[in-house]
Amino acid sequence: MKVVIIGTGFGNRVMAPVYGRAGFEVEVISPRDGERLSRVCAAGADLVSIHSPPFMHRDHVMVALDHNIAVLCDKPFGRNAAEASEMRNRARELGVLNFVNFEFRRFPVRVKMRELIRSGAIGTPQHINWELFTNGLRTRKYGWLFDNSRGGGWIGAYGSHCIDTLRWLFDSEVTRCGGTVRTDITARIGDDGAVHDATAEDAFSAWCSMTNGISVLIDTACATSVAMPQRVQVLGSEGAIELIGDQKLVLRKPGEEDQKFTLPPPEGDGHEPGLGPWISDVRNALQSQSQISPSFDDGLATAKIMDQIRADAFRTDR
Question: At residue 209, does pLDDT exceed 80?
């Protein structure tokens, strides 16, 4: 099987080795080389894996679909729900297999978390509290990630994973949401040496309600002075589950000793515990010509919620 990867950053550094280990023949091309993309698609491939900036997703997805080639698109799935809907509808119209790169669904501790919730280990889920404060983007140079018009912002970069995980954990939809957004680092130096205004948020707090009655709070930032571990706490009628980082899971029940599940830190890139199983599943889906999730449907559902958060959120910094 051959995969054409669009993206010389994350696509080349992280995705290409994962595809190689899954047995794919890999070709990496620049997101800005449209002529080469059309040429390699015309020559034939089993999958186009898109890891370009969000403002380029729509055009790259459409080229692959028009050549009847299966597509895996990174998140956020386009810049907004309008673009996501256009891509999803085109894939449906043509009957082409499609996938969205919500690889955190495949992280072993998250799979275990889902199993525990569905087994009734904490009774009826009632509330989820999700926190992540990281300084990973504090010193990053200016680029599309900090440009709202090009699909940047922490809601798309991280919030998309949160929303998808909520939908997947509980097989339920987010119905209402709101919150606050802010930009802690308001100006950044670009590769050109000039100072650019950051027009996309690097922090947000959101509240959500779900169709199954669960309430949700998400509080996160990517440019804090110090980093603190991700914590996801699911409170139920008969106990609670806490995910710490993406390696440790704790089940707490009244009157019982805590049960702890630990996954050793991965070698190499931190995405690999999820990407390895996910790309294996994609390979199997291509071989059997079976549609699996997360798909463009999931990308669109997430995009709609992100649009709602952006529209309803109050800015606290300006």
Answer: yes
